[in-house]
UniProtKB/TrEMBL annotation:
Organism encoding this protein: Lasiosphaeris hirsuta
The name this protein goes by in its record: DUF1996 domain-containing protein
Keyword terms, alphabetized: Signal
Signal peptide (from-to): 1-20
Signal as UniProt keyword: yes
Pfam families according to UniProt: DUF1996
Amino acid sequence: MKSFTPSLGLLAAFATSAQAGLRFPCSSLTTQRLDPAAQPGALPSAHLHMIVGGNAFNATMEGDVASRATCTTCQMSEDFSNYWVAHMYFKDPKNGTYHRVMPKPVQPLLGGSQGASGGLTIYYTQFDLSKDNLKQQTIKAFPPGFRMTVGSPTTTGKQHAGLSYQCITGGNRGTLLSTFPTGKCNGGIFTTHHFAPCWDGKSLDSPDHQSHMYNTVRSEGFDNAPACPSSHPVRVPQVTFEIEWDTPKFADLWTPGKDANPFQWSFEGTAAGTHADYMFGWKGDALQRAMDKPECFYDGCGSIKKQAMSEANKCTVKDFVRENIEGWSKFLPGQGDSMAGMTGMKA
């Protein structure tokens, strides 16, 4: 894999030159076994997800999400979309018990975005992080009701390009990896999910939640993907999620080289099974306005309203599943008697 070692203060360098696309934080909305894209109506779904975005989120979601949501955990206050990923877990190599690894608060970006509660960083890029190329490549925003996924929990080989891990050490993210880092990352584990950028222009979804898209992503960075094929000719924004997982809290509980890697996903598959889900929910033409702006990085060149993260953090949804996911447990949620729990060390 190629190396990519930006510091966590990389954005300061971005600010000195023109940049293209949107980049903003979203706080955690809820953590539950819900998956309205892959398992609509399932209450609960098969495994645990960390979800951000609008408060219309529930087990079944159809149509215009933005018309039903009243708040969002995202800094872009017109974005009522939902974004979710499988939750990371630590499995104690000594007794086999499980504990959630929490997402670290999104690092402050530009424009007063400090104060996120957990969550993830969202990107919508037009071309790459240095130019928009809008004269040669028109970007069409997603329509209401659109959804897609990337990756699959059943993957056991090597995942598609654009799904990666990094070991944060000394403020640097380090080499891009296709699996969990093997050592103790004193800054945590960084995961990235790049979605497919080509749409068939017709289907809001497909049976596997991916066939209506065509994944031309061939690299791990924010490079422009190759041209879209005739079967999927519509270039949409390249959506990406980034999450920092707070793995250092478990550093004293395992020994690299002696113990098996203790980090895994909530579906207890392999690292190649990392995946993410997206459900479009921008209000009106807000996203299209941003994608039509040349060289707009982070704030949509003023075309999108922003809110303080202290306000975003007030947005919540109810606990639909009513499942205890706190503390230590003998089982992952959905994979045994996950309600049993265990007392002991708090991470």
